[in-house]
Amino acid sequence: NAGVMQNPRHLVRRRGQEARLRCSPMKGHSHVYWYRQLPEEGLKFMVYLQKENIIDESGMPKERFSAEFPKEGPSILRIQQVVRGDSAAYFCASSPQPDNSYEQYFGPGTRLTVT
Amino acid sequence: QKEVEQNSGPLSVPEGAIASLNCTYSDRGSQSFFWYRQYSGKSPELIMSIYSNGDKEDGRFTAQLNKASQYVSLLIRDSQPSDSATYLCAARANYGGSQGNLIFGKGTKLSVKP
Fold first, then answer.
1. Closest of B94, B105, B107 to residue B29, by C-alpha
2. Which of A9, A30, A48, B87 has the lowest tally of Cβ within 10 angstroms?
3. What are the pLDDT digits (tens) for A15-34?
4. Does A72 touch chain B (CB under 8 A)?
């Protein structure tokens, strides 16, 4: 049973470019969460999605950031016009359902570096 | 702002000793709590989940939850050098429009000395 998959594992972008991060949840999981970890800081929630729905985007910056989880294919976190402060590790986690009894499993992450 | 707080450490214990990691949380609505282990440069790995007051044991790990005190702990018995990592405490959000996502502490760095 494959775990959560993320790609690319490392991404380098120049300031002003777009970054597109992909996440495929574990088999049987339909709920996806994106978290960001800045250097020397804790994990911060960004957005929670189900297939074709954004459930909670309260942790995502209002500008430049967007996320989707289409009916087919992986979830995508898109960052437009990247700035140096966007350099971080972006982790995706998945769970089968959002009930309290379900655990979230993390993918390997995408390390974004903005030059 | 709902928070989870942990001592950042580093916590240093000798090999074979018991390591005790603690965290407190502010969201009284939280019902689920998790401990993740994160090695440097890697992603968080789930170690334990706990939902009810009391203790939950899994191998060398014991999680403890006290909802009245809003306190969660993780004990690691017979600590090994391979346990050296940052341990993240997380509470599942359960307030307003935030239900399902995890609120993480900043982590406690554990070092087990051979």
1. B94
2. A9
3. 999 999 999 999 988 899 99
4. no
